[in-house]
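Example is below:
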Amino acid sequence: MEAVIHFKEADILNGEDIVIYGLDMDILPGDFVYIVGKVGSGKTSIIRTITAENRVSTGEALVNGFNLIGIKQKDIPFLRRSLGVVFQDFQLLMDRSVEDNLEFVLKATGWKNKQAMDERISEVLASVGMGTKAHKMPHQLSGGEQQRIAIARALLNNPAVILADEPTGNLDGETADEILQLLVDLNKAGTAIVMVTHNRYIFEKYPGRVFSCEKERCTELLDEGIDVEL
């Protein structure tokens, strides 16, 4: 099975500074992967590298068939269309409805047929339990509902991978569990999930592969019960 994300001996940059040396990481279709570590340990830099916001200076780096080493600017939008991204702060457009938020993304990624867009919006909203919320404004929704909309947005282009950067950081415990269960269900349906978190409770309750970032390295923890300093 071919990896959807492949790093080998890759140095990960934040600006001009290397924050992770020699990253080795293969994520396969259907994997659920956590990237954990203290603040400033390079977790989010890895996510930004996967989306080609940060560049890779050395090694091998492939995402959904795109070579991140020397990727051309014109190819970056196509790379990003193959990914779904969920943020801690939702990043919804507050001046337009849920439906218009999602339609904005579809138009920006090349969709033109209005009927096809309407059908896809209905599909993704139903898949996250928000089928009746299309005409709501973001401020009319709870934090958990806004994050569900953000996940629906991430699903619009049928991504092979969803990148979730602290997706429960602004939510209470019960709502966070609901969002985690939604991501688990999407993963069981075949979508690879890569989640950045510093919350030990999450990766202990919802098991997956765990990569730990510390001391300018990020390595997979293979031993059950191994301690992670967060």
Q: What stands out?
A: The mean pLDDT is 91.
